[in-house]
Design a protein that fits this description.
The complex is a heterodimer of chains A (116) and B (113). In chain A, 0% of the residues lie in helices and 53% in strands. Chain A is built from no helices and 11 strands. Chain B is an all-beta fold and 113 residues long. The chains are: A mainly beta (116), B mainly beta (113). The interface between A and B is medium-sized, with 27 and 26 residues.
Amino acid sequence: GENVEQHPSTLSVQEGDSAVIKCTYSDSASNYFPWYKQELGKRPQLIIDIRSNVGEKKDQRIAVTLNKTAKHFSLHITETQPEDSAVYFCAATPLKSQTGANNLFFGTGTRLTVIP
Amino acid sequence: KAGVTQTPRYLIKTRGQQVTLSCSPISGHRSVSWYQQTPGQGLQFLFEYFSETQRNKGNFPGRFSGRQFSNSRSEMNVSTLELGDSALYLCASSFLGTADGYTFGSGTRLTVV
């Protein structure tokens, strides 16, 4: 099955700086790569995702890049704010059709702390 | 529109007991997936149900089981609880039954003592 590795496990940045979290995956069939943000005591929430036919996607201060050849993808957060402090999870899956089985393979998470 | 509802939010059980957790998906969603979240392992897939059928199962022992009802609500059961089963159990519902449509619930925090 798919194996997703995520680095770093913890990351501290000064407010206003950028943060980068990196993930690698093993299954070349994976074609869907979401990123989730989980604040303390809350549910994981999708913040951005990318599919294998796209190399980069941006949404305001958040961007994700994908390198299919190297099997890695990264989350970039610019102009960080204290409310960005949370645990971030990457995931990958070979997304199948509606009638096929689907599940996400998650990285182990990165605890991001933004220091005011 | 109501989100994904998991009950109970917190649960304390003794080793050897069994437990049942409930997940009510977003109205109209037919797929419910369950994940176990622990500090060391992150989120690990347990199983997925679609229209009352288990379509996919992760690598967990047979003590972990689940089912889905005709109204798409799902339950998971853990029998003969072990200390290592202490975790946050999350369910996610999806309209199309694909992983790109997940909405997670807030989870049930299970503590086994």
